[in-house]
Structure to design on (753 residues):
């Protein structure tokens, strides 16, 4: 966040333009952002209440402080609660660290400060990379709902029962935005605590933003796919932390990390993890530099080249350091390929791509006396291309409802510097006693609160907009090009698709004035469930008012801001309604045809005479089955619908798969 | 046999409450009682139901979280006032 907001808001040298969303929305003043996560480190400067006035009268929450050791709220951090009964019911230990909203992990403080933390000048990681950490809605109040605990098993650490209770609490407390950087396997909406909780939240006007998941780049991995959720993928910003590996044969290889320089400015002996293996360890385990697999006699004073796998990235060089290594080169395996991440390592380190790692191992194996050097990390801004999609970011298609494109949007989620816990080191090793108030993290967990922060600003600016209107504004103003003005790429540097980025990369300044929105209300969501085939009596249980499924309930006509046709056979017609949220204007439609598909729009001109006016239109989507250029069966093809009055550009991705 | 059946924690989701938000606070105990009574009709006694339920969702979400065996969960899922019954599983931080 020391640079991500500048990147999104196009600020130069930290100067906030007067037409920026930040200025227009008073930096989110009066808004309350809740976070379902690992709690909060209340002493963080990101949550200091200096300069904050009285707590908004609508706030009904509180600071839950059972053991008095613990979390004190203030006029910035106005709520902190914890929910652990579902964790306990599955065998989780309840003790002083699991009966508190204090964040012993760091994840919750990071995400909450990204969404709504103060501006904190002088934020750094172990003294390097000084900058101003920034929350998206820095004048908003924040509340932590702790639902994630130390893992018991492989199942995950945030239990459904606790998540539902936290949603209940947040709705009752009066939050405006909920940021939820967690998720499970994609599942049926009515058996998914996030989908259920967020449905009730949205019904009460609370906007819910969730992370898409980190199971990319495989297709069909996106989670939190309910249409009432804003689902967020992760992409890069135009900043890199470069750390070069220099080999004695003259090769200089660019890697990344956040670490200090090797002492002495000289070359050091270089060995692979396998060469440093302990007598009782396997070479495969030693290559991963796992604990207990390295022989200190062999490793001491050397740079160790480790393969990224179960251990070396997670422990951030701790095992290499314990074995006496002076530095670590972390090499991707084939699976992790080009994805390199600037982690704060315990010792001088550089993270290399698979291809570059192979060059290092080849040098080690072909040289009698291999030597190397690792330069200190340096920050580079204005890197190109940016943004590009993180390889880890989960992708569509949506396995629960293929007719709804997910994720909805992408935002910065790689190498994000934000607040951290004071309870542990970012290397996550108990032996590492260093503490830092800020650290870098990567994941869709980090992109999600960026969107939550923007939602806080939009809520402030447009208090009358529905959660769906806010979502539509964010989606239809997203961009699909990077800073080279070419189509956005994915982690392997090939062209990304809406399955990675949804409607594109978020543009907060555009989102405040989208021109038109695709709005939805609770009954639309109930109609959506009817169209999915849920029976009338089940759906009635969601509604206090008498409700009956429309006879023509259709997923095709669900007023979503993106358009997805699954298994197109012949042609279909899709209806949408747009609402004018700007001045009177005349909009014209433009279509970018998906390959092998013809799309027409009727009418292709929409004239709005007043704000709030709604107009409908129809898209007819036809497979060019008669021609050689028809869409290949089963494959997805991508296009775009654009409405513009010359001032606003209202974009919807079109995604089609053919039968 | 049922007496030794494996107990696991489940979420029983029943949709939305019929009460409005303004009277939610006053009806918390009423809702809790109704959840206890509802579950008692499957478990045989209110005491057992009270022991089994560890969360009653009383304000906006209608439902509860309880420790049940598979057969009990399956029977509850068939009730017309129940939307879904699912295992209380863990999600991951992203």
């Amino acid at each position: 966040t020391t640079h991500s907001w500048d990147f999104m808001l196009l600020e130069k040298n930290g100067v906030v333009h007067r037409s920026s969303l930040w200025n227009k929305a008073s930096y989110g003043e009066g808004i309350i952002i809740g976070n379902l996560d690992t709690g909060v480190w209340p002493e963080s400067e990101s949550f200091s209440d200096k300069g904050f006035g009285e707590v908004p009268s609508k706030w009904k929450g509180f600071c839950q402080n059972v053991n008095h050791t613990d979390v004190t709220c203030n006029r910035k951090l106005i709520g902190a609660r914890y929910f652990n009964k579902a964790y306990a019911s599955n065998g989780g230990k309840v003790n002083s660290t699991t009966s508190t909203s204090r964040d012993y992990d760091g994840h919750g403080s990071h995400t909450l400060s990204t969404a709504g933390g103060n501006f904190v000048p002088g934020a750094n990681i172990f003294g390097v990379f000084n900058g101003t950490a920034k929350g998206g809605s820095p004048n908003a109040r924040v509340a932590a709902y702790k639902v994630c605990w130390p893992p018991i098993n492989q199942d995950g650490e945030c239990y459904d029962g606790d998540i539902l209770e936290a949603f209940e609490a947040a709705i009752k407390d009066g939050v405006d935005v909920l940021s939820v950087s967690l998720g499970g396997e994609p599942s049926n909406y009515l058996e998914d605590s996030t989908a259920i909780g967020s449905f009730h939240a949205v019904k009460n006007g609370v906007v819910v933003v969730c992370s898409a998941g980190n199971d990319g780049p495989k297709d069909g991995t996106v989670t939190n796919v309910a249409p009432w959720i804003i689902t967020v993928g992760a992409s890069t910003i135009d900043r890199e932390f470069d750390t070069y590996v220099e080999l004695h044969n003259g090769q200089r290889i660019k890697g990344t990390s956040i670490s200090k320089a090797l002492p002495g400015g000289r070359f050091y002996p270089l060995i692979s993890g396998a060469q440093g293996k302990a007598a009782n360890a396997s070479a495969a385990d030693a290559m991963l530099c796992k604990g207990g697999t390295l022989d200190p006699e062999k490793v001491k004073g050397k740079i160790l080249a480790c393969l990224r796998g179960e251990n070396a990235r997670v422990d951030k060089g701790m095992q290499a350091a314990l074995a006496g290594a002076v530095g670590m080169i972390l090499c991707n395996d084939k699976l992790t390929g080009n994805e390199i991440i600037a982690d704060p390592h315990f010792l001088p380190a550089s993270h290399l791509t698979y291809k570059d790692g192979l060059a290092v191992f080849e040098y080690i194996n072909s040289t009698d006396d291999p030597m190397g050097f690792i330069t200190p990390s340096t920050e580079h801004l204005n890197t190109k291309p940016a943004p590009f999609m993180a390889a880890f970011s989960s992708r569509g298609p949506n396995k629960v409802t293929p007719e709804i494109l997910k994720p909805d949007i992408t935002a910065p989620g790689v190498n994000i510097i934000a607040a951290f816990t004071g309870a542990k080191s970012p290397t996550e090793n108990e032996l590492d006693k260093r503490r830092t108030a800020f650290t870098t993290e990567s994941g869709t967990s980090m992109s999600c609160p960026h969107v939550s922060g923007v939602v806080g600003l939009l809520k402030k600016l447009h208090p009358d907009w529905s959660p769906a209107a806010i979502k539509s504004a964010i989606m239809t103003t997203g961009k699909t090009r990077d800073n080279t003005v070419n189509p956005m790429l994915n982690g392997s540097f090939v062209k990304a698709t809406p399955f990675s980025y949804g409607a594109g990369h978020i543009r907060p300044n555009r989102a405040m004035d989208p021109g038109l929105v695709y709005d939805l209300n609770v009954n639309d969501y109930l109609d959506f469930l009817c169209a999915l085939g849920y029976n009338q009596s089940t759906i009635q249980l969601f509604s206090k008012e008498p409700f009956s499924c429309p006879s023509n309930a259709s997923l095709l006509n669900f007023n979503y801001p993106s358009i997805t046709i699954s298994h197109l056979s012949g042609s279909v017609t899709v209806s949408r309604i747009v609402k004018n949220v700007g001045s009177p204007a005349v909009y014209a439609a433009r279509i970018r045809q998906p390959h092998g598909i013809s799309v027409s729009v009727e009418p292709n001109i929409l004239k709005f005479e007043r704000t709030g006016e709604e107009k409908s239109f129809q898209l007819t989507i036809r497979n060019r089955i008669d021609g050689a250029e028809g869409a290949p069966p089963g494959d997805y093809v991508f296009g775009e619908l654009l409405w513009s009055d010359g001032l606003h550009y209202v974009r919807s991705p079109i995604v089609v798969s053919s039968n | 046999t049922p007496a030794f059946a494996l107990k696991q924690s489940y979420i029983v989701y029943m949709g939305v409450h019929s009460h409005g938000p303004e009277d939610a606070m006053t009806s918390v105990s009423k809702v809790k009682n109704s959840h206890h009574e509802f579950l008692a009709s499957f478990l045989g006694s209110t005491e057992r139901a009270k022991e089994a339920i560890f969360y009653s969702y009383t304000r906006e979400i209608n439902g509860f979280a309880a420790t049940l065996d598979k057969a009990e969960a399956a029977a509850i899922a068939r009730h017309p006032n129940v939307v879904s019954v699912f295992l209380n599983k863990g999600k991951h931080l992203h």
